[in-house]
Amino acid sequence: MNKGLSIVGSSRANGDREENDFYPTPRYAVEALLEREKFEGSFWEPACGEGDISEVIKKYYPNNSIRSTDLIDRGYGQGDINFLSQIDLAGMGNIDNIITNPPFSMALEFVEQSKKYSNKKIAMFLKTVFLEGKSRYNMFNDKKFPLKCMYQFAGRVPIYKSGIKLRNSGLIAYAWFVWIKGYEGDTIIKWIN
Questions:
Q1: Rounded distance between C-alpha atoms, residue 166 and residue 51, angstroms
Q2: CATH code of domain 3-192
Q3: Structure pTM?
């Protein structure tokens, strides 16, 4: 691993990213969100991987419907569903909440697409640096579906390539970003210890 990748906390063997950006979300990180933010209605996890987020949602909301899809079929949910292309929503019913850990290289696109499909809330597990970037400025200043809260982890959350534990993980800051349709007010930052 080169020195630059080591400094930024790469969990990538030989500095290579996982081909399809499969970096599963630790279940405790999902629990931290659901203990702080309440949801009503149905759920969609459009980058479900092996079901780490979906299974925690089922634990907290056993009576709510949840749809789990992914571009890649990893044996959980419905595979071969490209969330970023036009999706036929027939048969899905109302989509109230979207909760996911999107591929970071496509995070902005995931937020914008989620704003089209969600009726209530969007929660994305993202690197804190997602706050930066001129390309995200308009999305963050959207008044119809604004960012209500950011739950910043006080400690680093280890994220592992394909779920395989490697050294040098846990050096990147992560947060849950929560958008609420029609929210009025300032964006709030809260910490998860």
A1: 21
A2: 3.40.50.150
A3: 0.85
Distance CA 141, CA 33 (A): 23
Question: How many whole angstroms separate alpha carbon 33 and alpha carbon 173?
Answer: 15
Pinpoint the alpha helices (H) of the chain: 3-7, 27-36, 52-60, 107-117, 137-140
Q: What are phi and psi for residue 127, nearest 5 degrees?
A: -65, 145
| Dist CA 65 CA 32 (whole Å) | 21
Q: Which of 62, 95, 79, 89 is nearest to 20 (CA)?
A: 79
Q: Amino acid identity, residue 193?
A: N
Read off the pLDDT band of 8 (50, 70, 90): very low
Parse the chain into domains and list their residue ranges: 3-192
